[in-house]
Amino acid sequence: MESQNQKTTADLLVYLPVLKQKLADLVEKTNEMEQILIDSAFENYEMYLAFKQNKGVISVEDTKKMEKSGESDHIQMASLALYYVPITTHFKQGNFVEIDTHLLREIFQFYRESMLHFKFQKAAFKAIKASLRDILNS
After folding, report:
1. In 3-state terms, what secondary structure has residue 117?
2. What is the pLDDT of residues 27-40, one digit of tens each?
């Protein structure tokens, strides 16, 4: 059973770039924040699958990726708040097979939940609120 799970995880790691391209083809043109959300969600899920495949061990490479992502948590949180719904509605409009739709939902939901629990949550919400206020006042 465990080897079957590892095979499935390995297959998913190979399939993720294909699925990401399918999503890109459907969404077509994205702005910078939408692209950050898509890239971050897929990268986050790839790290999760790698963690799962390595039997719960985080690789040095993934640790470095996570340290770097800490610098952009505010941007990721803002992109999540602003673009989660518009991006996920594409799942319903696309010609994805059912398993693609399910996997996309899982990827973005997993990312959403992880971002909502990151350690700078209050600071991120303040930054988003200030940014939105600036946009509205300009």
Report:
1. coil
2. 888 888 788 888 88
